[in-house]
Amino acid sequence: MRVCGTQASGLHDSEPTPHYDARDLVRSGNTALVELDGQLYTLRITRSGKLILTK
User: Fold this and answer.
1) pTM exceeds cut of 0.85
2) Most CB within 10 Å of its CB: which of 1, 24, 37, 39?
């Protein structure tokens, strides 16, 4: 996975917020699985180029 770089974050954060390109996450498809605390979520890029995250 490639990190695109970082953007400045809020004034109280000690580190910049990571910046990821969604197309890199889904590779050549439209969906990617994202795990958080043992729960799987589906990240999907719609035909109109919007992102949807579902459990």
Assistant:
1) no
2) 24
